[in-house]
Each structure stands twice: as structure tokens, then as C-alpha cells.
Design brief:
alpha/beta; 5-stranded parallel sheet; 5 helices; CheY-like_superfamily; Response regulator
């Protein structure tokens, strides 16, 4: 079963990503457990106990970079979509992020990222 974590500062953003993930997965016959987090500390505490299979990191600036780096060191096999307001594409490549998106993120672009998880 997929355990998907969504880490974003704004509730509306977390909810939007979670809904898109659920719709996408249900269309593929998958029913993941999607958890939403607004707090990095709580996210990483939970990740140490129950390693997510997939994660969406949508934090602004260096907070997103730090979260992506920490996630990769803590959960090296976790698949990652990273959304940022700054161009960290080189860092995303180095961290083996499955997909990197610059904000604002369109639903179509996010869907492409989800396809990389099931490819």
C-alpha cells in the first residue's frame, strides 16, 4: 500500500495536492493512505516511525530544500515530488527527486509528476 505524505505550509495547498493524488490513484485502482502535514518536525517524527513510500514537499524557499535533503537522508527509497517557489532544479536532480515543479503549479504539471511515481 502507498503511504503518501504531503508537506505544505498552507492548508488549501495541502488539501489540493491530497485531492489530486487521491483522484489520480483511484483512477488507477489504487487507494493510498494520504497524510497531510504543515509542520516539518511532526512530519519527520512520523516518517521515522512509518516511512512514507511517496512524498510531496511544497515548502517555500530554503525550507523546501532543507526538507527535501532531510527526507532523502532519512528515507532514501521514498519517491518525491518537490514543489518550490525558487529554482532548485539542480538540487532536485542531485537529491534524486522524481519530479521538480516551480510554483505556481498547475494541475496538469502535477499530474505529470504523479505519472513518474507509477512508471
Amino acid at each position: 500500500m502507498y503511504r503518501i505524505a504531503v508537506l505544505a505550509e498552507q492548508e488549501a495547498e495541502r488539501q489540493r495536492y491530497a485531492e489530486q493524488i487521491i483522484r489520480f490513484c483511484e483512477a488507477k485502482g489504487l487507494f493510498p493512505q494520504v497524510m497531510q502535514y504543515d509542520d516539518q518536525e511532526r512530519f519527520f517524527e512520523t516518517a521515522q516511525k512509518e516511512v512514507p513510500t511517496n512524498a510531496v514537499i511544497a515548502l517555500s524557499g530554503v525550507a523546501g530544500l532543507n526538507a527535501a535533503e532531510h527526507l532523502r537522508s532519512l528515507c532514501p527509497a521514498c519517491r518525491m515530488i518537490w514543489c518550490s517557489d525558487l529554482d532548485f532544479s539542480l538540487h532536485a536532480f542531485r537529491l534524486r527527486a522524481d519530479y521538480f515543479l516551480l510554483e505556481p503549479v498547475s494541475e496538469e504539471a502535477f499530474q505529470l509528476g504523479l505519472y513518474t511515481w507509477l512508471a
